Amino acid sequence: MPVLTESPPGPRGPNAGHYPGHHSLDPHSRPLGSGLSRRRAAARSLASWTGTLGAGAILGVASRLGDDLVGGWAWIANIGGPWLVAAFVLGTLARSPRTAAAWGTLALLSAVGSYYTWIALVQDGAGRQHLGWLVALWVVVGAGAGTAFGAAGWAWRTGPGPARLVGAGLLSSALVGEAAVLLAGESAGVQAVFLAELVVGGALPWALLRHPRDVAGSAVLAATFLPAAVVGTAAVMAAAARLAS
Hints:
By secondary structure, the protein is mainly α. It is built from 8 helices and no strands. Helix 1 crosses helix 4 (97-121), helix 5 packs antiparallel against helix 6 (161-185) and helix 7 (191-208) runs antiparallel to helix 8 (212-244).
């Protein structure tokens, strides 16, 4: 029986060179599964961005509704701490620092938008003449804070060792700084809220980090950031009060 030394002739025409069960050598061809994977990845990405936008909108509306509460409860909805924590938490869910910063920014801008949209559409005209400048102020603040604290969340959750200390220290200093400013300027009747924020902020390095050396390093960084946090909080509060008057 003769031994074949060459491949048997294949089909001619446009399918020449393609045999059943053989993958095409065409560099432009793609397995069917790759297209499905890309669509799934795109759907997950869209869901993540949409969820971030929705979370920010809920935060803004909840903050606005909280303005109508009495006593210290209104301050719980009004202080910046929950907004910064929201950006930080979203940052912990991101896979890259760029995405974390973008999610933090998007969430806080969405919160600002929903807060003032509620005032414009639902609230009886009180203070509407000041909305333009106030919105501009909080858009700037929200963009900066969202970027910083979204990235800080990623740094604490995913970043290398030193970055984890910086992320935890940044959030700690922000909460402590805001609480210190408010404690110095508000009446004793609502100071319990600010004391609670002060305690939470001071305890964050211990809550977010495990090793005593990391806790100490993060606390030192928080103390280093604290003057900037105090000055920044005071400046933003003064600007908002002036624009609202």
